[in-house]
Design a protein that fits this description.
347 residues, Aldolase_TIM, eight-stranded parallel β-sheet, globular, alpha/beta, TIM Barrel
C-alpha cells in the first residue's frame, strides 16, 4: 500500500479549480509525501497533459482525484435563484455535466497512476475493480460512517475522512438540504466513529495546518493526514493572487451553496452572506456563477469570489511546498515524541 511507502504521512489535498498544479503535486511527492493532481473541471485531454507533466517532474508516486458525477437538478430548483442574480451580476447558463467522468476513468485505466481518489461519491464495485486491475489503489472521500461503509463494501482501499473544518466542497455522496439542519462531523469526531465502524486505513482531512495537528490525527488513528489550505501560498500552487492575500487575514469561514449549489467552506464575504438560501443544484449553479466569479477575480473584488479555505487558513505560510512538507514532518515527529515522553513519565 502506498501509505506504507511514504517517507512522511502527508498527503496533498487535490484543490481543483486553480491551486492544483503538476509542480505542486511533484514537490510534495519529492519531499516524501504523496502529491495529488486534481482532475475536477478539466476535460480528460487536459488531465492527460497534467499527468504527463507531473511524471516529468517526479519519478515518485502521486494520485489523481476525480469528481464523482452528481445527479442532474430540475431547472425549477435553480431558475429563480439564477434569475435573481442577473440584475446585479454577470451570469452564465446553468447546465449539467458529468465532469467527463467516463473519459477520465478510461484514461486512468489505460494510463494508470498509483492512486485514484474520488470526491462526491463512490465508484461502483465494477469501476473500482477495473482500477485495481490497472494497478491503482482507490481512495474514497467520506464524511459519515454510512458513506464509509458503502465505500468499503464497494472495494475502496483507503478512506479519506473529511471533517467539517475542511476548505472547499464537502465531499458528501448526496447533498441533502435536510443536512443543513444538523452540524457536519468535525474531523476528530469522524475519525473516532470510523475507527470503530470500519476496517480500512484512514487519511484525515480538515483543518490540519501544523505538524502538531498531523501528529494529532495520527494519534487519533489516521494513517496519514491530507492538507490543502496550508499549501495555497506555496509558489508552486496555482492559487489566484486574490486568494493568496485573503487567506492571510483572520476572516472567519462559513459553509455556503451560494457559488456552486453544493456546500463548501470558504472565507465569509458579502455574496455568501446575502445568498444564504441558495438551492441544492450542483454543477448547474457552478456554471451559472462562473462569469460573476471571473469578473470579480479580475477586478480584485473579494466580496464576489469563492475564497475556498479551511478553518485554519491564516496559518498558511509562504514557503516552497517541499520545504513546507519537511517542516510539517519535523514538527509532527517532535510532537509525537513529546506525547510518548509524557506517556512514559506517567507510567
Amino acid at each position: 500500500m502506498i501509505l506504507d511507502e511514504l517517507d512522511t504521512p502527508i498527503v496533498l489535498a487535490p484543490m481543483a479549480g486553480g491551486p492544483s498544479t503538476p509542480e505542486l503535486a511533484a514537490a510534495v511527492t519529492e519531499a516524501g509525501g504523496l502529491g495529488f493532481v486534481a482532475a475536477g473541471y478539466l476535460p480528460a485531454s487536459e488531465l492527460a497533459a497534467r499527468i504527463k507533466a507531473t511524471r516529468a517532474l517526479t519519478a515518485g508516486a502521486f494520485g489523481v482525484n476525480l469528481f464523482f458525477p452528481s445527479e442532474p437538478s430540475p431547472s425549477d430548483r435553480f431558475d429563480t435563484y439564477v434569475r435573481n442574480l442577473a440584475p446585479e451580476f454577470p451570469v452564465g447558463e446553468p447546465r449539467y455535466d458529468s465532469d467527463d467522468w467516463d473519459a477520465k476513468l478510461e484514461l486512468l485505466i489505460a494510463d494508470p497512476v498509483p492512486v485514484v481518489s474520488t470526491t462526491f461519491g463512490c465508484p461502483s464495485s465494477a469501476e473500482i475493480e477495473r482500477l485495481h486491475t490497472a494497478g491503482s489503489e482507490v481512495w474514497v472521500t467520506v464524511t459519515t460512517v454510512a458513506e464509509a461503509r458503502q465505500a468499503v463494501a464497494a472495494g475502496a482501499d483507503v478512506l479519506i475522512a473529511q471533517g467539517a473544518e475542511a476548505g472547499g466542497h464537502r465531499g458528501v455522496f448526496v447533498d441533502d438540504p435536510a443536512d443543513d439542519l444538523t452540524d457536519p462531523l468535525g474531523l476528530l469526531a469522524l475519525l473516532q466513529l470510523l475507527r470503530v465502524a470500519v476496517e480500512a486505513p484512514i487519511v484525515a482531512a480538515g483543518g490540519i495546518a501544523t505538524g502538531a495537528a498531523v501528529a494529532g490525527a495520527l494519534c487519533a488513528g489516521a494513517a496519514a493526514a491530507q492538507l490543502g489550505t496550508v499549501f495555497l501560498r506555496c509558489p508552486e500552487a496555482g492559487t489566484a493572487p486574490l486568494v493568496r492575500e485573503a487567506i492571510t487575514a483572520a476572516t472567519p469561514t462559513m459553509l455556503t451553496r451560494a457559488f456552486t449549489g453544493r456546500r463548501a467552506r470558504g472565507l465569509r464575504n458579502r455574496f455568501m452572506v446575502e445568498h444564504p438560501d441558495a438551492p441544492v443544484a450542483y454543477p448547474e449553479i457552478h456554471y451559472a456563477t462562473g462569469p460573476l466569479r471571473a469578473t470579480a477575480r479580475a477586478a480584485g473584488n473579494a466580496d464576489a469570489v469563492n475564497l475556498w479555505a479551511g478553518q485554519t487558513h491564516s496559518l498558511a505560510p509562504e514557503l516552497p511546498a517541499g520545504e513546507l512538507v519537511r517542516a510539517l514532518s519535523t514538527d509532527a515527529k517532535k510532537a509525537l515524541e513529546r506525547v510518548l515522553s509524557r506517556r512514559i513519565q506517567t507510567c
